[in-house]
Design brief:
This protein is α+β, with helices and mostly antiparallel strands and 129 residues long. It has one domain: SMI1/KNR4-like. Strands 3-4-5-6 form a four-stranded antiparallel sheet. It has a two-stranded antiparallel sheet with strand order 1-2. The protein is globular, with a radius of gyration of 14 Å. The termini are far apart. The C terminus is likely disordered.
């Protein structure tokens, strides 16, 4: 349903995540997805379909690219997009005011990096040593 509505093919890792969990919450960050509308009432998790459409309508940086899908954000205007929609290589890219940089080489490494607190956010948007 999401693929048809957004005109994308979801990367394998992200597809498995939304099929198994719908959406998620890690310490300090939400992973956007496809929450069950019955169990997500009132809304706790962000629906990636509605958000992607809204960002595209507002011409949000990154949302104009059909190969990117927003999967999270940091609350400062930086969104994290998964690449690889429609068949490209899969990376997570931080895009926001003055920032456009790969932050993780895959969806899994993004999620693990958040859980282990090894990702650095903000102006640097890079993996910490």
């Amino acid at each position: 349903m999401a693929e048809a509505q957004l005109g994308v093919v979801l990367p394998h890792e992200y597809r498995e995540f939304v099929q198994n969990f719908g959406a998620g919450l890690l310490p300090g960050v939400e992973i956007f997805g496809l929450p069950d509308p019955v169990r997500n009432n009132p809304p706790i998790f962000t629906d990636v379909i509605a958000l992607t459409k809204r960002l595209r309508q507002r011409n949000q940086a990154g949302a104009e690219r059909p190969d990117l899908l927003p999967i999270s954000e940091d609350g400062t205007g930086i969104y994290f997009f998964i690449s690889g929609c429609n068949g490209g290589s899969t990376e997570v890219i931080a895009i926001g005011p003055g920032v456009e940089q790969v932050i993780a080489p895959s969806f899994q490494s993004f999620v693990v990096g958040w859980a282990e607190r090894t990702l650095s956010l903000g102006d640097s948007c890079k993996m910490m040593p």
